Amino acid sequence: KAASASAVTITLADNGTDDVSFGYFEIDPEHLTVSGTAAGNALAPGNAGFAAAALQRAMANGLIANPGFGQSREVHLDLDPSKAFGFLIVNAGNVFTSLAAANGDGLSHVGAAGSPFHTDTVSFEDRRDGGDHDYNDLVVTVVGAHFEEAVRSAG
């Protein structure tokens, strides 16, 4: 029996100059895999097609546009608390996920911090090859759900 959805608040703070979109996708919490085909075959972060499958799932959930440089935006979602989710951003055709092995450059594009108050913050580096390494281009704060499985292996 599926758990009922619970309110989650996501706040995006844009500190980067690129126009990025943010998304979330369901992952298997034990193996950090995403369903990759219509047959339901699971793809691990290092598998070809993982980022595309994650992006497809995120697009189905609705990508969230960044609020604009120096601005923030709050989005309210109803998510199943029994499920685990990964994050991603899209920048100029590049998809960077919260799982380093899934990124085309093989690098982590997130910095993560959690708290015991069900608040998680994930900050993204939005350019290939580590960009400027400041990990503050898009800062995402989540209240009401834990995304630790997605960021646990962010590297």
Largest sheet: 5 strands, antiparallel
**Helix/strand class:** mainly beta
Assess the beta-strand content as a share of residues.
35-45%
The count of strands amounts to 11
What is shown here, in short?
The protein has 155 residues and is mainly beta.
Describe this structure in words.
With 155 residues, the protein is mostly beta strands. Helix content is 10%, strand content 38%. It contains 2 helices and 11 strands, in the order E-E-E-E-H-E-E-E-E-E-E-E-H. It has helices at residues 50-61, 148-151, and strands at 6-14, 21-27, 34-35, 42-43, 64-65, 72-79, 84-91, 94-97, 110-114, 119-124, 138-143. The strands form 3 sheets. The protein has a 5-stranded antiparallel β-sheet with strand order 6-1-11-10-9, with no helix packed on it. A 4-stranded antiparallel β-sheet has the order 5-2-7-8. The longest helix has 12 residues, at 50-61. The model is unreliable at 148-155 (pLDDT under 50).
Write the layout of secondary structure elements.
Blueprint lengths: L5 E9 L6 E7 L6 E2 L6 E2 L6 H12 L2 E2 L6 E8 L4 E8 L2 E4 L12 E5 L4 E6 L13 E6 L4 H4 L4
Antiparallel strand pairs: 1-6, 1-11, 2-5, 2-7, 3-4, 7-8, 9-10, 10-11
Features:
disordered C terminus; 4-stranded antiparallel beta sheet; 5-stranded antiparallel beta sheet; 155 residues
